[in-house]
Design brief:
The complex is a heterodimer.
Chain A: H1 28-38, H2 41-49, E1 67-72, E2 78-82, H3 87-97, E3 101-108, E4 128-130, E5 133-138, H4 160-175, E6 182-186, E7 191-196, H5 199-202, H6 206-215, H7 238-260, H8 266-273, H9 279-291, H10 299-317, H11 322-325, H12 327-336, H13 342-346, E8 352-353, E9 368-369, H14 385-395, H15 411-447
Helix pairs in contact in A: 1-14, 2-3, 4-7, 7-10, 7-12
Chain B: E1 2-4, E2 31-33, H1 34-56, H2 61-76, H3 81-99, H4 103-122, H5 126-135, E3 141-142, H6 145-161, E4 173-177, H7 182-186, E5 191-193, E6 196-200, H8 204-234, H9 239-248, H10 269-276, H11 279-291, H12 296-309, H13 313-328, H14 330-344, H15 359-363, H16 376-379, H17 382-391, H18 396-407, H19 411-423, H20 434-448
Parallel strand pairs in B: 1-2
Antiparallel strand pairs in B: 3-4, 4-6, 5-6
Classes of the chains: A alpha+beta, B mainly alpha.
Cofactor (chain B): [4Fe-4S] cluster
Pfam families (chain B): DNA_primase_lrg, DNA_primase_lrg_N
InterPro entries (chain B): DNA_primase_C (IPR058560), DNA_primase_lsu_euk (IPR016558), DNA_primase_lsu_euk/arc (IPR007238)
């Protein structure tokens, strides 16, 4: 595609070359088409309005306008504190800037646009008032336990780490914390984001968010410590026990072993031996495994066998020292338990990428993930910008934002977003608006009684 | 509260049914002599400063209980119990005026008063504690019957996960929304189900402290409003000067401005890192030289430290640029990292001149995969720590002493002992800030060789 062929009118994009050469999946012209035709503006607006659509007297019509957005433009220009009165203002701003990345921030006490008018010395009148409880899980934080990829790469062998993370966290958010309106989103390249949208969650203070994040924290590692998971105590907390029994144990002994064969080479198994605090047991196992180095078994079978040996040895010696009692679980947790980025969750004013953005490095759309079907999610099959553009070209301009049929690439995701997430959420928001309105009215009625 | 000049104080019959641990929910209608106004506040400030000191030295909760008990008896005791309670209340409300006036002052006061309350509460008997919980009017119900039965097995698991034996498992649990006990949730010390935490009787302190803190936080905002709108002007010849003087005298140095002992230039920096940096900063510095990169936590911790040590903005930019461009190239450095450095020096954004982190902050940070910040005494494995200490020149005897402190979680004392071993001198005040370590070290080295660069 040469420069002369490009027509900069966003409404009239037909790409002449039927097989455009794609060096990477992302370019700014595709992005314009995407934001011109496919980005679900009204769904995002409905979501972030949380029922304040002005159709009920209890609605706060300025609620959406107090939400902070940020745009990252081409050339890394970063625009913070953007806010929009309504959906069309948001749409216009996106269509005139074509941001490479859109982040969603908090709902503030006043319009972010107008924050300077409220700056006083000493006391800050511009403060965050509501914000979803969010989590960010990035597979690069697992680099010390995945052997197939490292850094920005991800494949079908290591992605299951994300799957199991989703299951553990999602279950706990619902069972332990009682949250219901949870959206999981693919981050576009190598991780997942989680948006907890219950009213209770949106009103949590920074201290409370920090508490939830710490509750989820188990892994405390970096290259300076050998044992990165320390499960003290005589038993596991019920949350950890449930995660272990329902998800982690089977994942470790099954899919993880198959994909990563974590015992199959000396370098790999030394790392695990380092987690056993007893030197004698370490040498015992080391001896066994060095001797069997030339066995004819496959990598996977070797790995499984060694795991069984390790378990047996630890079982028989576990009364030797209290720290050995939880050693097996610690090893499993080290390899499989979710590693969330605590800083993202702790502060209300932390920005997070919006769903349905496009990742600039991969061209993939940040689509929602269904936690009940997350085993089926394949990060390498997520629609890319160029695939979407091809689809438009193939079908003419019948692509339209309201299309949520299964026939289009993006349609399935939009349908899921609407029916499984947005609808139930909005229903409960409206109920809340109505009931708090009734309470308010009820109260003022009382003041008139005599 | 009414402040009067007369010598006699009118009888205060207003503090009738107060327990010995007031909650400071409302300012009582009392009259206070002007002299007491200031003196009571100063005594309480001594207590709060002692609390601050204890926390900075990483004292564990039991040690803090003892410390608070001692401080209270030393500064706040009076022969008459009701007079003692009056002093308690008066001094608290006076300090509210002093510390409501800026965000930084509020934050400090809130933390110290909450800690003071927490430890005073902990040493009370269980019946007194329950009475105090009642005072707050908290609506929590005890869990009984079938609900308790269905939870019992998991409650036992929680207790065992905290190394409590079966006989310790308690009989009374309160069902409380999880938001009210964030510290118990964060440390997984409670069972959670559908948004509720099941809090044992012995964990009441957490509930109460959260309430206390939340109430005081709101009260400080109101006090500030009253102060700025009416009190400050009205009292400008009487109370205002006292109030304004009280806050400046008791906060420790924050190292935002470097002192005469701390002023380094780029060419000295490698030398000085080996001779005067505390272990945490030396580690970060070495890693930066080695990897030509540091993650965010490390950049903040080391960057602010260097600022406190006297590295000027231009030198700082040159320093980080020199390293980072070896890995990410000059353009990316300018785009992604230079802004943050300027931000730290208060040249961007809201232009706050950020203060270098104290030990308490560094110790409680959470370095994750790929990070090198934090406190090595806390975050390194024993082997790695020993290796690092031996590179600093510690003998095996000296190392044993340090490791002993580490095993008992006295991380700042470990650092102090390291300091003492490296420089062959004692450090009575103890290390509670990396920049303090640096300045003390420079003092010693300069006094030994006054003209040579150290």
């Amino acid at each position: 595609m040469t420069r002369e062929e490009i027509d900069n009118n966003g409404d009239d994009m037909m790409i002449d070359d039927p097989n455009p050469k794609i060096e990477n999946e992302f370019n700014v012209h595709y992005l314009r088409i995407y934001y011109g035709n496919l980005f679900p503006y009204s769904d995002i607006h409905k979501w972030l309005s949380y029922g304040h659509d002005g159709k009920h007297p209890g609605c706060d019509e300025y609620y959406f306008g107090r939400r902070e957005f940020s745009f990252t433009l081409e050339n890394d220009v970063y625009l913070r504190y953007k806010s929009f009165k309504n959906a069309s203002a948001m749409e216009d701003a996106i269509k005139s800037n074509f941001p490479y990345k859109i982040d969603i921030g908090a709902v503030y006490s006043v319009d972010p646009d107008k924050r300077h008018a409220y700056a006083h010395s000493g006391t800050n009148l511009f403060t965050p008032v509501e914000r979803e409880l969010v989590f960010d899980i990035d597979i690069t934080d697992y680099d010390d336990v995945r052997y197939c990829c490292s850094g920005a790469d991800v494949c079908t062998k290591c992605w299951p780490l994300m799957t199991v993370a989703i299951k553990v966290i999602d279950t706990s958010l619902r069972e332990d914390f009682g949250f219901k309106y949870i959206l999981w989103v693919f981050s576009g390249r190598r991780g997942v984001h989680c948006w907890v949208c219950d009213a209770k969650a949106r009103r949590l203070t920074n201290e409370q968010r920090s508490a939830v994040a710490e509750y989820f924290r188990v892994y405390k590692g970096n290259e300076n410590n050998a044992k990165k998971v320390d499960l003290m105590g005589h038993s596991l907390h019920p949350f950890l026990a449930r995660s272990y029994v329902d998800f982690l144990k089977n994942f470790f002994e099954g899919e993880l072993q198959t994909n990563q064969s974590i015992f199959s080479s000396k370098e790999k198994y030394e790392k695990i031996l380092g987690m056993i605090t007893d030197e004698d047991i370490q040498s015992d196992l080391r001896g066994k495994w060095e001797n069997s180095a030339r066995s004819s078994l496959s990598e996977e079978a070797t790995s499984l066998l060694r795991w069984e040996q390790l378990k047996k040895t630890l079982q028989s010696k576990k009364n030797k020292a209290p720290s050995l009692r939880t050693c097996i679980e610690e090893i499993v947790f080290t390899f499989t338990y979710p590693r969330i980025d605590l800083e993202v969750s702790k502060q209300m004013n932390h920005l997070l990428k919006a769903p349905f953005c496009v990742h600039p490095k991969t061209g993939r759309v940040c689509v929602p993930i269904d936690p009940n079907n997350c085993d089926e999610f394949d990060p390498l099959a997520v629609p890319t910008l160029s695939q979407l553009i091809e689809e438009i070209n193939a079908g003419g301009l019948s692509m339209d934002v309201d299309d949520d049929s299964d026939k289009s690439l993006l349609g399935k995701s939009i349908k899921y977003f609407r029916s499984s997430f947005l609808e139930p959420l909005l229903k409960s928001c409206k109920e809340e608006i109505e009931s708090s309105y009734k309470t308010k009215i009820g109260k003022s009625k009382d003041t008139f009684s005599w | 509260m009414e402040v009067i000049r007369s010598q006699k104080r009118t009888a205060s019959n207003d503090i009738v049914s107060t327990p010995t641990l007031p909650l400071y929910l409302t300012a009582p209608p009392m009259e206070v002599r002007l002299e007491e106004f200031e003196l009571f506040a100063i005594d309480r400030l001594r207590v709060l400063k002692g609390v601050s000191d204890g926390l900075a030295r990483g004292r564990n909760p039991n040690e803090m209980d003892d410390l608070v008990d001692t401080l209270w008896k030393e500064h706040m005791r009076l022969p008459d119990v009701s007079e003692m309670i009056n002093k308690d209340i008066i001094s608290h409300f006076v300090l509210r005026l002093v510390y409501c006036r800026s965000d930084e002052l509020k934050k400090w006061f809130l933390s110290m008063e909450t800690a003071l309350f927490r430890h005073r509460f902990r040493i009370k008997k269980i019946e007194e504690q329950r009475a105090i919980v009642g005072e707050f009017g908290l609506p929590y119900k005890a869990v009984i019957g079938a609900e308790l039965e269905s939870l019992k097995e998991r409650l036992v698991l929680v207790a065992r996960s905290l190394c409590q034996t079966s006989s310790d498992v308690e009989n009374i649990y309160y069902k409380v929304p999880f938001e009210e006990v964030p510290d118990l949730v964060a440390t997984r010390r409670v069972l959670l189900q559908k948004g509720y935490a099941f809090v044992a009787g012995s964990q009441l302190v957490s509930l109460v402290v959260t309430q206390f803190r939340s109430h005081l936080s709101k009260a400080l905002i109101l006090t500030n409003r009253k102060w700025t709108t009416t009190i400050r002007e009205r009292e400008k010849d009487r109370l205002t000067p006292i109030v304004e003087a009280l806050s400046t005298s008791y906060l420790g140095p924050d190292y935002t401005q470097s002192s005469e002992y701390a002023d380094i230039s780029l060419k000295d920096i490698d030398q000085v890192s080996k001779s005067s940096f505390p272990l945490c900063m030396r580690h970060l510095f070495e890693k930066l030289r080695e990897d030509h990169h540091l993650k965010h936590g490390g950049r903040m911790q080391l960057g602010l430290f260097l600022k406190g040590v006297g590295l000027k903005l231009d030198d700082a930019l040159a320093f980080w640029r020199e390293e980072f461009t070896k890995k990410v190239g000059s353009e990316r450095f300018d785009k992604e990292y230079a802004y943050a450095i300027r931000h730290n020096y208060g040249k961007e954004g809201k232009r706050t001149d950020y203060t270098p982190y104290a030990c308490s902050k560094i110790i409680t940070s959470a370095p994750g995969a790929g990070d090198h910040h934090g406190c090595p005494y806390r975050h390194f494995s024993e082997d790695n720590l020993k290796a690092a200490l031996s590179r600093m020149g510690l003998s095996s005897r000296g190392m044993e002493d340090v490791m002993d402190k580490v095993r008992n979680r006295h991380y700042q004392l470990a650092c102090t002992l390291t300091f003492e071993a490296v420089y062959g001198t004692s450090c009575d005040t103890g290390i509670n800030h990396p920049n303090q370590y640096f300045e003390e070290s420079q003092k010693i080295l300069k006094s030994k060789t006054p003209t040579a660069p150290v």
